[in-house]
Design a protein that fits this description.
It is built from three helices and no strands. By secondary structure, it is mainly alpha-helical. The chain has a domain of about 45 residues.
Length: about 70
């Protein structure tokens, strides 16, 4: 498996409408999975996965806020 293949899988899920609609539930499920796997992960993996979780959380926040972001540009 390559990063490009995984990105293609993400894109295909989105384009086919199979990406999760409920971002809050997705974020909560990801957090539960990460918590259960935490001790088996290395520090760098934890950091990367927390970054992914933060992106999910931000997306959910933006949806709840009606698309408002802190980005001034």
């Amino acid at each position: 498996m390559t990063p490009e293949k995984v990105l293609s899988m993400f894109e295909r899920q989105y384009l086919e409408g199979r990406a999760p609609v409920d971002i809050e539930e997705t974020c909560a499920n990801f957090a539960a999975w990460l918590a259960s796997a935490w001790e088996q992960l290395e520090a760098g993996q934890r950091t990367q996965l927390v970054t992914v979780g933060a992106a999910l959380w931000r997306e959910g926040y933006n949806v709840r806020a009606g698309g408002a972001t802190k980005d001034l540009w």
